[in-house]
Specification:
By secondary structure, the chain is mostly helical. The protein has two domains: 134 residues, Tetratricopeptide repeat domain (Serine Threonine Protein Phosphatase 5, Tetratricopeptide repeat); 61 residues. Helices cover 67% and strands 0% of the residues. Helix 4 runs antiparallel to helix 6 and helix 7 packs antiparallel against helix 8. The relative contact order is 0.16.
Length: 244
Amino acid sequence: MHKFSNRFLSMLALTTIVCGAVPTIAAQETEEGQSEERVLDTVQVQGVQNDAAMAAFRAGDYETAEVEFLDNAMCALRRERNLTNSIESAQLGALRAESFASGGAVDSGGSSQGATAGTNQQPITGLAAGDAVAARNIQNTYDRTCEMRGRQLYFAGLSQIQLGKTDEALRSFERATVASKILYDAHYKIGLIKLLSGDEGTAKSELKKIEGILKRCRNCDAKQEIVDRRDHLSKAINGEVSLQ
């Protein structure tokens, strides 16, 4: 990838600070896996993240912040996988219980006790299993946040930008947008980085994604911030502003 100048990296980092990266992320948050068609102004904003990763970021210790946010993202991924596996296992158990009960009911040679043995048990439903797993996962992690994987990857990218790790930041932003579809600032930064490397096609694609988020935003609190990023990226693509 094209090696970016310190001036560009400083500009990109400054854009983050001027546009209010930390307040912005609250408007971008959504529960992982939710439909991307959900409009932004219906998203419930979570509490401010207060852990070792964010403490390091606010203190300007970006090396520590990078490591901590990436660890947070891995923890969130493990939690997502555990929850998915538990729900799938519970659904399979419910299907087996239902199949057993149905089989016993049509078996005319079996006893009534055998026919109803499966139905007397209370099968675990997918919802109940999910609640059980969620309860087991609720732990006081103190210095670790194991949720909102997209958010963790986004802040890891911001930390990497501050450290001059443009390649790593690009990958973090791309992974963040896969985990959460409405991280408009991540799309904006991907567009800028790609544009600087000469990939105008990808920059235009990111611009379209920002425009799509803006349409779903309606009158959300983040609307002006999304508009600002859309306009700046559009002008950069058209050569109206210089990124060099």
